[in-house]
Amino acid sequence: AVACERAEGVIPCPGVVPGSGPIGDAIAHGAELVSELDFAFSFCSRPIIAVTGTNGKTTTTELIAAMVRACGCSVALAGNNACPFSEAVMESPQADYFVLEISSYQLETTLHFHPKVGAILNVTPDHLARHTTIEQYAATKAKLFARQAKDEFSIVNADDPVSAPLTDAGRGRALSFSLARAVPAGLWVEGEVIREGDVEVA
């Protein structure tokens, strides 16, 4: 209890509800609550590609990391997996890119974090015991875009009615992807062909 009272800041595990238990005691005595994402971000000078969503985060981030490596660049894969973002920053500070799997729990208390490229794959009812409503859950996911600059990219799933409008949360360049229809800016699938507008890209 004395340690909590003397703490100047706390960086909680994302799975811990902010303000609960000893963390709540520390905050009540004036400690600053800092998300692990914000803490690591303050030491990261490399471009970040971050992916969130209810489903598909792990597969997508591993695919992106493989694509980055295939381009001849070094990559640190971290976040909501076996390697925390802060650990990756310490171990691979000069990686060409950081590819992060991000959960809603990690985004919940962020104030500064913003990726060069952010993607929200989908938002379906989950973790509602903590986020209460699907609207609050989606708003937490949208924090991925909230502090992006105009030269950064916000990517959403055009086929998912909850995540599709979330690019409105920030100022980044809005892009989308679809398996069902052409999109004004982004990639879409026609049969076995991937297109960008009318151009076949794969």
Describe the structure.
This protein has helices spanning 2-6, 21-28, 36-41, 57-70, 85-91, 104-107, 128-131, 134-142; strands at residues 9-10, 32-33, 48-52, 75-79, 97-101, 117-120, 153-157, 173-178, 186-190, 193-196, 199-200. The chain has 202 residues and is α/β, with parallel strands linked by helices. It has a nine-stranded mixed β-sheet, with helices on both faces. A two-stranded parallel sheet has the order 1-2. The protein starts with a helix and ends with a strand. The mean pLDDT is 92.
- Per DSSP, the total helix count is 8
Question: Helix/strand/pairing class, anyone?
Answer: alpha/beta
Strands, total number: 11
Q: Tell me, rounded to a whole number, the average pLDDT.
A: 92
Strand content: 15-25%
Radius of gyration: 18 Å
Instruction: Output the strand order for the largest sheet.
Output: 4-5-3-6-7-8-9-10-11
Residue windows where pLDDT falls under 50 for at least 5 positions: none
What share of the residues lie within helices?
A: 25-40%
The description of the largest β-sheet is:
9 strands, mixed
Order of helix and strand elements from N to C terminus: HEHEHEHEHEHEHHEEEEE
Q: What is the end-to-end distance?
A: 59 Å
Shape: globular
